[in-house]
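Researcher: Please predict.
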Amino acid sequence: MANIRIQTTQNIELEYQLAGVGDRLVAYFIDLVIYAAYIFSVLGILDLVDGSGSGMWLYVVLVLPVFCYQLLCEVFLNGQSLGKKAKNIKVISLDGNQPTLGQYLIRWIMRIVDDMMGSGVVAILTISLSGKAQRVGDMLAGTTVVRTKPSTRFQDTIFSASEESYEPIFSLITNLSDKDITLIREVVNRARKHPGNSDAILWKAYERTRKILGEEGPSSPIDFLEAVLRDYSHVTGKDQDRQ
């Protein structure tokens, strides 16, 4: 499976595994099953409604979510429809950030070209032939679809629940945002899985984080960043590695 490297706005390069045509097709068919189940439920409700004009309005109201399903799911489920969630894939922006509403809208509108023209042949061809596994909607929106990592097991986390006696190292730890911590976690996890291949990324994350905190800590970049994650977890009560 091909990978893609993305330069984040923090000038840190992250690598993701692209979702292939197979994964995206399976996710699409799972969503189709959800469509069908919903529509059958709607028809059952309509059978209980008399033949007056209110039945047509009810039909429009109940069926409308089917047309907006992909857009609503991706906006509110962090780039995933239920099918994508089942296949552990998601939409990301090529700048490393979560896609904006505008990007999701472009992807949704362009489904007219990608999915409906040629019964999805256009989408399959562009995903297969483009270097970043993009359909037309992705190309215009500046997005792609990648595999998500499975939830980290508790025993694999770099910190466990903080004890009451734990003393944070960094007094300015709250200067970091959830987004900063998520990026640091990804860098640390990658460095732990591929030691020796992530030194440049570690140093960039280390230097940027130390500059934000303005404080000294462990001299080793990975030890420093792990200490940051422990402190943030303790101070905010958020175990980022288990979300």
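Model: The two ends are 25 Å apart (CA to CA).
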